[in-house]
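call fold target=ABC transporter ATP-binding protein
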Amino acid sequence: MFTKYMIFFWKDIKRELFFLIVVRLLNSISPVIQLIITKNLIDSLSIYFQTGGKERLHESFLYLFIQSSILISNNLISMFERINNSKMQIKINYNVEEKIIKKSSNIPLYNYDRGNFYDQLLRASSGQSQRVVEILNGPMLFVQYLITLMTLVGILLKFHYFTLITCLILSIPPLMLNLYLSKARYKLVKELTPLSRKVNYLLNILKSKEYAKEIRIFQLQDYFIERWRKNFQISSKIQLTFDYKSSLTQNLLNCICVVVIALNLALFVFIGPEQKLSIGEYLTISQAFITVQGILLSIALSISGSYENFIQLSDLIEFLEIPEDKDTNEESVDTIPIVRKLSVNNLSYSYEGNSQFTLKNISFCLERGQRVAIVGKNGAGKSTLVKCLLGLYKNYSGTILYGATDLKTISQKALHKHVSAIFQDFSKYNFSIIENIAVGEISKIEDLQQIKSAAKKSGASDFIEKLPMGYSTGLGSMFDKGVELSGGQWQKVALSRAYFSEAEIIVLDEPAASLDPYAEADLYQNFSDLSEDRITIMISHRLNSCVNADVILVMDNGMIIEQGSHDELIRLKGIYTEMYSLQSKNFN
Ligand SMILES: Nc1ncnc2c1ncn2[C@@H]1O[C@H](COP(=O)(O)OP(=O)(O)OP(=O)(O)O)[C@@H](O)[C@H]1O
């Protein structure tokens, strides 16, 4: 699985990685060349200072020139490497983000009902593109270190094999420590995710428009700021304690390494005269020792870094592997005939983590052209039922048939052509009115005539035509020049989506909640037009809106307890009659 994703990302940045190979090769031989030039420069200068002579002076200037040229080219290489890295980062970032948004908008809706889903989403989205780049870059960096190491090891071995053994031994404790810290850091990130989400949630409450009114009216600023402060402090305390402990251990280890290195350098001073070293050779060997030690340490860090990247990247891969609707059903169909009948048999549903069933053994059958109303107390299961009917929750038991086709076998793509819904908490897109209506059938966004006709049926055209830019007006206050609508006006725009849609099954959840009495009366009038050739299902608490419905489903405690037309249910003298009488009483 891991390889599959890595190959995908690798393909996208092949060119940049190839460039990086060239950079790594140049970087790998640069230290040894620099050392040789420095040695020659120092030896040539020391002879020149002692004996003079034009030849030595020219030689010294030549080495100085070569050394400066190497430094300049190193700078140029670093500059191109930085640009190349930015390119890689942007490409991988785009790919990772695209994969995450495609996945999160295609996985079954019930995932959004799980709290730990949001932890998973947060971890899958945090810093992952950086990790992908580091993992792809890792092997090349490793090869670079190895080549440099081989070139420098020669110098050290020429002097004494003991120096190499010291370097190797010195790199083991940092490797072990960093591997341990990588594991501990990942554990900490996992533990802190719910708390970090809480901190972000509180920040969002304090910053977003959605809560701005209530925060002011109820003067909740101090209360929420205090909650945010407490959670922030707990989270930072845990983080700081970890950082403190890991820095302390790392620094202690570094200090021990520095002492051992210093002892080795002191040893070179004693061995130097014995081996008849020139000053240049002494400096070269000391520098080679320090560089080899540094490289071995970098290798240790890159091994532990790669290990950490691998374990943290598993969160992204785990997220990308969440099954989508199309994955869960191999026999899914992409086209179905026009739906003339909707049959529900023994439908039961329970939310994850809920021991009780929210829907219990529901059965009914609806025909094309029927206007259907679903009524019942709060929490009776009305919204859950329509989410099942719309194919948003497919993990139910029992069967829902669209015509003769089992809903579970219909792909989400195919389903979209046959069902449409305007929810109680419909989305208010801060885009143009055209786009806000066209989302009902986005493939027809160019059809302005149809958009206008849908707006007329919902009653939205009256105020839209008075706006300075008409249907092109931007809505909402998120962007400049956007126009904010009233609750009822927004609802009319949302209702236009239903009139614009060509679906055969349309669900309207509390469509009149924000409408004035005139608009409400128009809605019920147009409801009949809308229902022609379709099955229209309306959830409503206003029972006078159900009088003209062909079928009323009365729900209580997850069950359909009464079913029939208004007159039939009134004759039944059951719950419906009770609720209807209660509401009517308020108008008398
Ligand atoms: N995402 C969810 N996760 C867990 N339980 C849920 C979820 N959504 C709803 N429920 C529970 O399912 C039950 C039915 O809720 P549902 O929203 O379907 O009722 P409703 O009849 O539409 O209510 P209302 O008239 O208040 O809108 C409620 O007890 C509710 O607590």
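return ok
The pocket of adenosine-5'-triphosphate is lined by residues 113, 351, 354, 358, 376, 378-384 (CB under 6 Å). The chain has 19 helices and ten strands.
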